[in-house]
Design brief:
44% helix, 4 strands, 12 helices, Rossmann fold, single chain, alpha/beta, 2 domains
């Protein structure tokens, strides 16, 4: 999300390294990336805190009659927070320009959605507030693009907020410390091969489970599916895709080197941050 808003990769990487040249001057880290100049209003370590921030910004947009829309991203693990329903209610009541996007990977950190939610279909909750909502294949970039474009057009036309539930799947654990052992191997392999779990289970009676290395190299993931669309549609060649992949790898390597060479924040930086915007200047 930070990259989409135009934050340079090296500024993002430096922030992840906790360095002074990061977008939050090394004091935000992975949980608090922020860049008001690029209208990226940040991530929050507190689950569900994006909702009220989005509502506040959208209210300001509505008050100034601007043609802008707030896109509020959250995961399935945040939909049981009280602020979710409070914010949906306020957005619907005041017809605020907000697009709520739920990235539902089914496991939040490590608990499958049916174990923590009585209603596993997140999009249905928006219907209680008369908010237009839909569930789409979040693993298909073109589907997400089309659904988002349509929703944004409706919001800008004054038809109130909308919600999109992107049904996704997380191939790896929540973090490097999470082996993801709470998920059946059959399920993981089914999503990687885009096949029915029953078919996979039957096949496994005569074959072996893949190794972790094989699982890590399996697909199709979102990027691979997009590459397939582009190739089949004649938009790019395999050679052009290989060049893009190499260039992205080089850009990531350069960002890591930049972050490693960046200085650490000082006490003066921390004091300056405390004094920043003390008088409530407009950020957006």
């Amino acid at each position: 999300h930070a990259l989409v808003r135009g934050i340079p990769p090296r500024a993002v990487m430096a922030e992840l390294f906790g360095r002074r040249d990061g977008c939050s001057r090394g004091m935000g880290g992975s949980m608090h990336l922020f860049d008001a100049e690029r209208r990226f209003m940040g991530g929050y370590a507190i689950v569900g805190e994006t909702y009220p921030v989005a509502i506040g910004i959208a209210y300001g947009i509505a008050m100034r009659a601007l043609d802008d829309v707030v896109i509020c991203f959250f995961g399935d693990g945040a939909v049981n927070q009280g602020t979710f329903h409070e914010s949906l209610n306020m957005a619907a009541l005041w017809r605020l320009p907000v697009l709520f996007v739920c990235e539902n990977n089914r496991y939040q950190i490590g608990t499958e959605i049916h174990r923590h939610s009585a209603v596993a279909e997140v999009w249905k909750r928006a219907c209680a507030y008369r908010i237009t909502a839909k569930k789409i294949d979040g693993m298909d970039v073109l589907t997400v693009y089309q659904a988002s474009r349509d929703a944004l057009a409706q919001i800008r036309a004054g038809n109130g907020p909308q919600l999109i539930e992107c049904e996704t799947y997380r191939f790896r654990g929540h973090s490097m410390a999470d082996p993801g052992s709470y998920r059946p191997k059959v399920e993981l392999k089914a999503f990687e091969q885009n096949d029915d779990p029953l078919n996979i289970a039957i096949a496994e009676t005569v074959t072996r489970y893949p190794t972790p290395e094989e699982l890590g190299a399996a697909g199709p993931d979102t990027i691979q599916r997009l590459a397939g669309h582009l190739d089949q549609g004649g938009h790019v060649s395999a050679e052009e895709l290989a060049v893009m992949q190499r260039e992205v790898g080089e850009e990531v390597d350069a960002a890591v080197r930049f972050a490693q060479d960046s200085p650490e924040p000082t006490l003066a930086d921390a004091e300056a941050a405390l004094a920043c915007n003390r008088h409530g200047e407009v950020l957006v």
